[in-house]
Design goal:
The complex is a heterotrimer of chains A (265), B (486) and C (444).
Chain A: H1 2-11, E1 16-27, E2 30-41, E3 45-49, H2 56-62, E4 73-81, E5 84-85, H3 93-99, E6 100-103, H4 114-125, H5 131-144, H6 148-151, H7 164-177, E7 182-186, H8 194-207, E8 212-216, H9 220-226, E9 229-234, E10 237-243, H10 244-249, H11 254-260
Helix pairs in contact in A: 4-5, 4-7, 5-7, 7-8
Chain B: H1 3-28, H2 40-74, H3 89-108, H4 114-119, H5 124-133, H6 144-181, H7 189-229, H8 232-237, E1 241-242, E2 250-251, H9 254-285, H10 288-303, H11 306-326, H12 338-363, H13 366-374, H14 379-408, H15 411-416, H16 434-442, H17 451-484
Antiparallel strand pairs in B: 1-2
Chain C: H1 19-57, E1 62-71, H2 74-77, H3 85-88, H4 93-111, H5 128-139, E2 147-153, H6 156-162, H7 168-173, H8 179-191, E3 194-198, H9 201-204, H10 219-250, H11 255-267, H12 272-286, H13 294-319, H14 322-330, H15 335-364, H16 367-371, H17 396-404, H18 410-440
Antiparallel strand pairs in C: 1-2, 1-3
Helix pairs in contact in C: 1-18, 4-5, 10-13, 10-15, 10-17, 12-13, 13-15, 14-15, 15-18, 17-18
The chains are: A alpha/beta (265), B mainly alpha (486), C mainly alpha (444).
């Protein structure tokens, strides 16, 4: 416990965006997440790593209450976004998700035009007052999603017609369009080839300027490349959380070390 | 020899062949079945198949061709000058067939004796009365030539039946013996039986194709007869439907088509929103308990026969609409109306639309929903703006299938829509549909020579073409849609 | 963490719903309500449908009877007195009518009621009564001369009076019944010679003519439907299973199998009336099979049911995992042996369920049967199989249609009653299918 306290002290340097305390998640009878405490800092990329089934995606989905859509999932503990409990009964998950956007493992563009894909979020949240403003939001989001140049001439074509990497950047741009404060990414590169992965990683690094990014990844190399903070999950426990450099070079817990050196996972 | 008896005998020979074949195989290897190529019963089955299959095939062909042969022999006996006006050789021949089968029945039941028949040629009124006793009603007086032809028909028929029995039995024995003599331990009995079974399987699967051919042939054949008597352009473009049994009818399809489309439109107006919203509610919102209750209840609607809906329209919905809507609004006083039939048909189609839509909505991948929720969309926004557009082709396919159902539905419109062919916009007026007219033109005593009867086949063909087109289109759309998410 | 003003400027608090979210949530609730309402509409429609049929139809199972002592006068029934059946059968039902009339008059006298203007009290008894009496006498010639108690059906109007269909006012205008007769009926009910009881005749008796609805029954229709179901079962099950086995297990991928597949899926959606036209043109006009016969109905329904059975059978064959096939092939079984020894038995429950559901569909089918002459008025029971398949018969759903086409309102009750019988059969079949599925369902 002393070690954990030390890590916490290190994080206090940045402003905290999300603070999770004593979070437990149950899927029916399965105890999927056990008493996890973590603080996610502003304008930082935080990576969740760990072997499959360790609960890192589950925990990520707690952060914008995506678990609400699963009937059997139960969440306890507190998760604070800017000091407000997101599981407070007064909170509407719809409003929360506008602030905490999400990008999924598999690129999932809607079967609509590229333009409509991006405009979907701004439209439902009423972010644009007219067509001109919406056009502007779409262009800005596509630019920030680093895909504008590739699609600017075919905005009216279906988003499903793009390549995998382009689709994923489109989905990131779509998430950005609603102007979230936090961006959650659930293994965003696992369905992509190495070149597309590189593009997305580059994009994540740029996004750090404006957003707090949480990324779940299978690949330790990716965590090392893109993140400043890393949390290692194992069998539903948060084993270790700290500076990425520290975790990878000097892990405290033996399980972290085994995972990083490839002995488990 | 009765057909039943013949079938039984052939089957019995088949079983005998089975036993003998099996025994011969066993004897050939002295009971050591390891030396046989196949299991002993396969040898038996081989003989069985050879005993019955060729014999039955011959019998079926014979029974199909026999009437044509007899007819060609007998029709020469009818003097063409004796055929009355408005009648035809084929009508007279059908009289001949009826009388001859009537005579058979009469003799069987002992009402007439074979020996008396020849003497009866001059006492045809008594004959007619006797035939009436056994339930064969002969419309007009029996002409002597017809009676003689009927007698000839019977005698040729009896001879041919006898010949057929002999030939079939001989063929059965010969084929069985041929197979039996070929049974050696090396004989590949299993392969032979399995090949035969496979042929049977293929024949069974081609029943579907033969049914379609049968439908198309019968529709086209009688329809072409109809258009020999009635001009195609009148049928397609005339706006009146007024069959007269003395000729000079107006048989325009347009008023019927209008009624059909109007009723179907009302039905879809009910079924599509209700079915679609129910499917959405059950797939996206309902708790498990509601789902386990409501889904089967809606499916029960699909299992109820259409006659039940028809009766519901006739005794409940029709009077209700008339008393509370049509009459107060001054729109008519008929309990059967487009509205009655449309509403009830709409109820019938609800489960159809909802279960198809349910499948289609569930085929939209979860990742699509997640993407929308992740952006902060509410459930209804997700449904309206992501799921429905994604499922749209499938839903359109489902609606087209429902439309084809509605157009081809018969009992609800027969009992609920009325019988008057009208081109009107008032939904509380009785109108009629293609299917209603098919029923009314083909039930009762029908004469297959008048355009008033044959028009039913032209209507049937139109119905078949329209529904087939809708089905093919719908199935194609649904299949394309499924492939998209596979 | 207690600081609630944490969100920086421009940011909104999560704990307060903004106006837009409120609006969106209201839209959400509306949408949800539409869905719930539509499910409600479907459920209510089913309830109303069932209630309407039950309300109109249950009374068909109960019938008003009148009990009378009939003196079987020798002078009327057997003038010669030697009980010769041939001679006695020369007395038609008209000869029996006076006996009933006498008995009715005697009954009125016995009751001691005096109803002014009462005419033709014998019309309160079904016209079927004379035939019933004649059958009884011809079956037991020795009863002539004695006095026996008979239970007759009351006429449709009297029966309707006790079921609320006929009132004193309507009787005023009705030429088939008079208010005086209704008063007499009330008196007889009080005395006990008129009572309402469960009516097996509705299920066992054949149809009756237009003006005696009280005697109309479903006997012939039930037998006809039963015969047709036998034909469908005997033909559709083997053909359907054989076709499915071929398509699922043996068929190579070529134009012919494609053609069959397309045909099956299209046949499933061809309007049922088209099958009726097929039956009329092929089975009756071309093959010369008799009209109104269960065999023709059965053949037509077989063709209609085949796609259902094929689709169900293929689904259950597909559900048998390939590992079973591989295991059988692996020990040296031929492909045919694999299918018949292993796959088919495992798929049997599914096939059976599909078949029962197909049969249930066929049982309720009406339209095609209208075209092949099943609408004919049939009063004679068809004989036993196999000849019975070629005898004229009715069918349950067609009987319903027939009764709706008749003028007397008493037939509405009959038609609804017949629907109840039909629905009970369907319910039983579907329950059997559900039980089979529950019992034998196997999850791989």
């Amino acid at each position: 416990m002393d070690d954990l306290r030390g890590i916490e002290r290190a994080i206090e340097m940045q402003e905290t965006k999300i603070a999770a305390k004593g979070v437990d998640v149950f899927y029916g009878d399965t105890h999927a997440i056990k008493d996890v405490n973590v603080e996610i800092a502003e304008k930082t990329v935080t990576a969740f790593i760990g072997p499959s089934g360790c609960g890192k995606s589950t925990f990520l989905r707690c952060l914008n209450r995506m678990n609400d859509t699963i009937d059997v999932a139960r969440v306890s503990g507190s998760i604070m976004l800017d000091g407000e409990d997101i599981y407070d009964p007064k909170v509407d998950p719809v409003q929360l998700r506008a602030k905490v956007g999400m990008v999924f493992q598999k690129p999932n563009p809607f079967p609509k035009s590229i333009y409509d894909n991006i405009a979907y979020g701004p439209r439902i949240h009423g972010l644009a007052s007219g067509k001109a403003e919406l056009d502007e939001i779409v262009e800005k989001s596509l630019r920030r999603g680093a895909i504008w140049e590739e699609v600017k001439d075919r905005l009216d074509q279906p988003g499903t017609g793009l390549s995998g990497g382009q689709q994923q950047r489109l989905c990131i741009a779509r998430a950005i369009a609603t102007e979230p404060e936090v961006l959650l990414m659930d293994e965003p590169c696992s369905a992509l080839d190495p070149i597309a992965t590189a593009q997305v990683e580059e994009l994540i690094d740029e996004l750090r300027q404006n957003y707090s990014v949480v990324i779940v990844t299978h690949s330790m190399q990716q965590a090392a490349r893109v993140s400043q903070k890393t949390a290692f999950f194992h069998l539903g426990d948060l084993v270790e959380f700290g500076e990425t450099a520290t975790i990878f070079t000097n892990p405290v817990d033996s399980r972290t070390e085994s995972y990083i050196t490839g002995r488990i996972g | 020899m009765a057909i039943w008896l013949l079938v039984l005998i052939v089957l019995a020979m088949g079983f005998a062949g089975f036993v003998l074949g099996r025994k011969r195989a066993l004897n050939a290897v002295g009971g050591n079945i390891r030396n046989l190529h196949s299991l002993p019963s396969y040898y038996g089955q081989t003989v069985f198949i050879f005993a019955i299959v060729p014999a039955f095939l011959l019998m079926i062909c014979w029974l199909i061709l026999e009437p044509f042969y007899i007819e060609s022999r007998v029709s020469g006996m009818i003097d063409p000058t004796e055929i009355a006006d408005g009648s035809s050789t084929s009508l007279v021949m059908s009289d001949v067939r009826r009388i001859s089968s009537g005579l058979d029945t009469a003799v069987d039941r002992g009402v007439l004796r074979e020996g008396d028949l020849d003497g009866m040629r001059n006492d045809l009124d008594t004959l007619r009365a006797r035939l009436g006793d056994v339930g064969v009603a002969v419309g007009s007086d029996i002409k002597q030539s017809v009676f003689l032809a009927a007698q000839e028909y019977r005698s040729i028929g009896a001879t041919l039946r006898g010949v057929m029995s002999g030939v079939v039995l001989l063929l059965s024995i010969a084929a069985a013996a041929w197979a039996f003599l070929r049974l050696t331990p090396e004989f590949r009995a299993r392969n032979v039986t399995e090949a035969a079974i496979k042929v049977l399987l293929i024949l069974a699967s081609s029943v579907a194709v033969m049914t379609t051919i049968g439908i198309v042939m019968s529709l086209i054949f009688e329809t072409s007869n109809f258009f020999k008597m009635y001009p195609l352009s009148e049928f397609l473009f005339s706006t009146t439907w007024n069959p007269q049994f003395r000729g000079g009818s107006d048989l325009g399809i347009l008023p019927l088509l209008w009624g059909t489309l109007y009723v179907s439109f009302v039905a879809l107006l009910v079924a599509v929103p209700v079915g679609l919203f129910s499917a959405i509610y059950l797939a996206e919102y309902a708790t498990k308990r509601v789902r386990t209750f409501a889904k089967p209840v809606i499916e029960i609607l699909a299992g109820i026969p259409t006659i039940v809906y028809g009766l519901f329209a006739l005794i409940t919905v029709g009077p209700l609409l008339r008393d509370y809507f049509a009459q107060p609004l001054g729109l008519g006083a008929s309990s059967s109306s487009v509205m009655t039939a449309g509403l009830v048909m709409g109820i019938m189609l609800i489960p159809f639309v909802s279960s198809l839509s349910d499948d289609i909505i569930n085929a939209v991948p979860q990742s699509m929903r997640d993407g929308s929720y992740g952006l902060g969309a509410t459930q209804s926004e997700t449904v309206r703006q992501v799921i429905i557009p994604a499922a749209l082709p499938g839903i359109i396919g489902a609606i087209l299938l429902a439309a084809s159902r509605a157009i081809g539905e018969t009992m609800i419109v027969v009992l609920g829509a009325g019988a008057a062919a009208k081109l009107s916009l008032n939904p509380f007026e009785a109108m009629t549909t293609i299917t209603v007219k098919i029923v009314s033109q083909l039930t009762g005593d029908t004469e297959f020579a008048s355009p008033e009867t044959l028009v039913a086949f032209a209507l049937g063909l139109s119905l078949f073409v329209v529904t087939l087109g809708l089905n093919v289109l719908a199935l194609w759309i649904v299949r394309r849609y499924r492939e998209q998410y596979e | 963490m207690t600081d609630m003003s944490a969100p920086s400027s421009g940011k909104t608090s999560l704990l307060r719903l903004d106006a837009r979210t409120k609006k969106r949530n209201a839209a959400e609730r509306r949408f949800r309500a539409y869905g719930a309402i539509c499910v409600g509409i479907a459920v209510v429609a089913l309830v109303v449908l069932m209630a309407s049929i039950l309300k109109n139809g249950t009374s068909a199972f109960f019938q008003t009877h009148i009990t009378l002592d009939i003196e079987l006068l020798e002078s009327k029934l057997d003038k010669t007195g030697n009980r010769d059946i041939a001679e006695m059968s020369k007395v038609s039902t008209f000869g029996y009518a006076p006996l009933i009339k006498n008995a009715m008059e005697a009954k009125i006298e016995e009751l001691g009621v005096d109803i002014e203007g009462l005419k033709k009290p014998q019309d309160m008894i079904s016209k079927e009564a004379a035939a019933q009496l004649r059958r009884f006498v011809l079956a037991n010639p020795d009863v002539v001369g004695g006095t026996y108690e008979f239970e007759f059906l009351a006429s449709g109007r009297i029966d309707g009076y006790f079921k609320g269909r006929v009132t004193m006012e309507s009787a005023e205008r009705d030429k088939n019944v008079s208010p005086q007769q209704l008063m007499l009926a009330d008196a007889m009910k009080e005395e006990g010679s008129l009572n309402t009881s469960f009516n097996w005749k509705f299920i066992t008796w054949p149809d009756a003519s237009e003006n005696r609805p009280e005697a109309a029954g479903l006997g012939v229709a039930i037998i006809g439907s039963f015969y047709m179901m036998i034909v469908v079962l005997v033909l559709a099950l083997p053909i359907g299973v054989a076709a499915s086995i071929y398509l699922e297990e043996f068929a190579p991928k070529n134009w012919f199998t494609d053609l069959i597949e397309v045909n099956i899926s299209n046949l499933a959606a061809v309007p049922s009336i088209v099958f009726g036209i097929l039956g009329l043109a092929i089975f009756i006009n071309f093959a010369g099979l008799p009209q109104s016969a269960p065999i023709v109905g059965g053949l037509v329904l077989t063709l209609m049911t085949l796609p259902t059975i094929i689709i169900a059978t293929r689904a259950s064959l597909k559900a048998v995992p390939p590992s079973i096939r591989e295991a059988a092939l692996g020990v040296g079984a031929s492909k045919m042996q694999t299918v018949f020894h292993h796959v088919l038995p495992l798929a049997a429950p599914g096939i059976l369920t599909g078949t029962i559901i197909g049969l249930a569909q066929a049982l309720g089918e009406t339209a095609p049967l209208l075209l092949i002459g099943m609408v004919a008025f049939v009063r004679e029971y068809p004989s036993g199989p196999p000849e019975g398949f070629f005898d004229p018969a009715a069918a349950l759903p067609v009987q319903v249609y027939n009764w709706t086409q008749r003028a007397d309102p008493a037939f509405v009750e009959r038609a609804s009653g017949a629907i109840i019988v039909l629905l009970v059969f369907l319910l039983v079949m579907n329950l059997v299918a559900i039980i089979l599925r529950r019992r034998f369902e196997r999850r791989w």
